Amino acid sequence: MSIEATVLLSKNEFVAELSDGRRINQADLRQMAGALHAAGIHSGDARCDWRAGHRMLTAGQQVALNAEMRRLEKQGVQVKSEAPARPMALVA
């Protein structure tokens, strides 16, 4: 079972609430992406949400967070995964 994250913006600080109960606070969006990556969150398991009392992440911020998380995943640093990686064949 993968860990999911809900990212909010509260008082100019990004807050991620993880499905396992942890909470991550970061002032910078790139640092938030790195912290989520280090916590084992995949880019597809992070979603942005809005609640009363919080600010909504702009579309640009949401795209930037997802892109940075995907970049970290492709960088070669593997996130702990419960499912084994499937081999992939490239066809030219």
Q: How would you explain this protein's 3D organization?
A:
By secondary structure, the protein is of the alpha+beta class. Helices cover 28% and strands 21% of the residues. Strands 3-2-1-4 form a four-stranded mixed beta sheet, covered by helices on one side. About 7% of the residues have low confidence.
In terms of topology, how is this protein built?
Layout lengths: L4 E6 L2 E6 L4 E4 L2 H10 L7 E3 L10 H16 L18
Helix pairs in contact: 1-2
Enumerate the strands of the largest sheet in spatial order, edge to edge or round the barrel: 3-2-1-4
Total of helices? 2
Radius of gyration: 14 Å
3D shape = globular
Distance between the termini: 35 Å
Please state the structural category.
Answer: alpha+beta
Quick check: average pLDDT?
Answer: 84
Would you identify the regions where 5 or more consecutive residues have pLDDT less than 50?
81-86
Largest sheet: 4 strands, mixed
The secondary-structure element order is EEEHEH
Task: Tell me how many strands there are.
Answer: 4
The helix content is: 25-40%
Q: In percent, how much strand structure appears in the residues? A: 15-25%
List keywords for this structure.
globular; 4 strands; alpha+beta; four-stranded mixed β-sheet; 92 residues
Quick synopsis:
The chain is α+β, with helices and mostly antiparallel strands and 92 residues long. The chain contains 2 helices and 4 strands, in the order E-E-E-H-E-H.
